[in-house]
Design brief:
There is one protein chain. By secondary structure, this protein is of the alpha/beta class. The protein has one domain. It is built from three helices and five strands. Strands 1, 2, 3, 4 and 5 form a five-stranded mixed β-sheet that branches. The longest helix is centred in the middle third of the chain and has 21 residues. The radius of gyration is 23 Å and the shape is elongated.
């Protein structure tokens, strides 16, 4: 990527680690993997702010978790911008995405289907004579 952006782009020495929670009740199969985002800070049109350009380098396996990671990165950038410690312009960052996923407390799809079908069985109605 650095070849496309030219020599004026620095590479951040350390990756940023970002944690993304999965709060859904259903188990995910396969379990989500850690992901990796590529991020570069680009100057906006006015030149007084940094816009982030991100791309998924390694997926978590789930688009909604990848999107949550990108949104969490934007939120982190805005928070850091307000306190003056934001991402640098023309700097290439790698962001490691760690998914908080608890396979012990989720419900499998099979268990959910069984509970739904068991509860919907109605007793047979015998017609009165």
């Amino acid at each position: 990527m650095q070849e496309k952006l030219g020599d004026g782009v620095a590479e951040a020495p350390d990756p940023i680690v970002l944690t993304v929670p999965y709060s859904g009740r259903l188990c995910l199969s396969p379990e989500p993997a850690d992901g990796l985002l590529g991020v570069i800070g680009l100057p906006d049109e006015a030149g007084d702010d940094v816009k982030l350009w991100t791309t998924v380098l390694e997926s978590t396996g789930y688009p909604f978790l990848n999107q949550a990671a990108e949104q969490a990165l934007q939120d982190l950038h805005q928070k850091q911008d307000s306190d003056g410690s934001g991402l640098e312009v023309n700097t290439l960052y790698q962001v490691t995405v760690q998914v908080e996923y608890d396979s012990q407390s989720c419900i499998s799809r099979e268990a959910l289907l069984q509970s739904r079908t068991a509860g919907s069985e109605e007793p047979e109605v015998v017609p009165e004579e």
